[in-house]
Amino acid sequence: MLRIFCLLSFTTISFLMRSQVYPLVDSLKHHLRADPKPTFYWTSYNSFMTGRRIGIQALKAGLIFNKRLTLGFGYHWMGRGVEEYLPQEGKMVPLKMRYASLFGEFVFYNKKHWIGTLPVQLGCGKSFLHWKDDGENVKWKEGMVILYEPSISIEYKFSPWIAVGMGYGYRIMLKNNQAIDQNFYAPLYVFKARMLFEELWERYKDKILTD
């Protein structure tokens, strides 16, 4: 799956670069000289574990430089769907994973209403088994996880301030929780919706700063 992801990413980027507005080889240093604008958005990832579709939600905030480079941080949590048998409880127990991330996104295509981005993120957090015992939250087999998630996504701007998009990527576990049997290596299918706070900031910043 990782080889397929790399091949599809290369093919997609090669196709979209034919009509891109901005040269991809612009230096990051050049973009970082621009005045940053704030951004905030929600993202939903979908992957498959043990044959089931698992959703991971994320809230992200950051700064956009020159409308090309975004740097920021996020918080991610895994939804229901994966369980592991716990002998001492004699039952299947839900598996959870939560992590914080540092992320970057580079715009390689921007024409009319379409935006192509290359997001990457490095996350660090914990995975654990979770259940309730007499109304109290109980965690078991808690351990650290470190992961790397490269992806590619396409967004469509429905208005000057709202964009929705989708993409694909891969979760690579740099450090796994050895106490849990599940393998978190998985392809990712990304759906996201975001308010373009950078556009709102550009339009109303003078009023906000003078009030």
Notable characteristics:
Porin; eight-stranded antiparallel β-barrel; 3 helices; 211 residues; alpha+beta
Structural features, described:
- This protein is of the alpha+beta class.
- It has a domain at 2-18 and 32-82 and 98-121 and 146-170 and 181-210: Porin.
- Helices cover 16% and strands 62% of the residues.
- It has 3 helices and 9 strands; from the N terminus they run ααβββββββββα.
- The chain has helices at residues 2-16, 28-32, 197-210; strands at residues 37-49, 52-65, 69-78, 83-86, 91-111, 114-133, 136-159, 162-175, 186-195.
- An 8-stranded antiparallel beta barrel has the order 1-2-3-5-6-7-8-9.
- Strand 7 and strand 8 (162-175) form a beta hairpin.
- The chain is elongated and about 60 Å long.
- Residues 4-8 and 13-22 have low confidence and may be disordered.
In short:
The protein is of the alpha+beta class and 211 residues long. It is built from three helices and nine strands; from the N terminus they run H-H-E-E-E-E-E-E-E-E-E-H.
SSE topology sketch:
Layout: H1 2-16, H2 28-32, E1 37-49, E2 52-65, E3 69-78, E4 83-86, E5 91-111, E6 114-133, E7 136-159, E8 162-175, E9 186-195, H3 197-210
Antiparallel strand pairs: 1-2, 1-9, 2-3, 3-5, 4-5, 5-6, 6-7, 7-8, 8-9
Coarse structural class: alpha+beta
CATH fold naming of the domain at 2-18 and 32-82 and 98-121 and 146-170 and 181-210: Porin
Strand content: over 45%
Please count the helical segments.
Answer: 3
- Helix and strand string, N-terminal first? HHEEEEEEEEEH
- The end-to-end distance, rounded to whole angstroms, is 53 Å
Architecture (CATH level 2) name of the domain at 2-18 and 32-82 and 98-121 and 146-170 and 181-210: Beta Barrel
Helix content: 10-25%
Kindly provide the radius of gyration, computed on alpha-carbon positions and rounded to a whole number of angstroms.
Answer: 19 Å
Number of strands: 9
CATH domain class name of the domain at 2-18 and 32-82 and 98-121 and 146-170 and 181-210: Mainly Beta
Q: What about the largest sheet?
A: 8 strands, antiparallel, barrel
Mean pLDDT: 78
Low-confidence stretches: 4-8, 13-22
Q: Give the oligomer, counting copies of the same chain as homo and different chains as hetero.
A: single chain
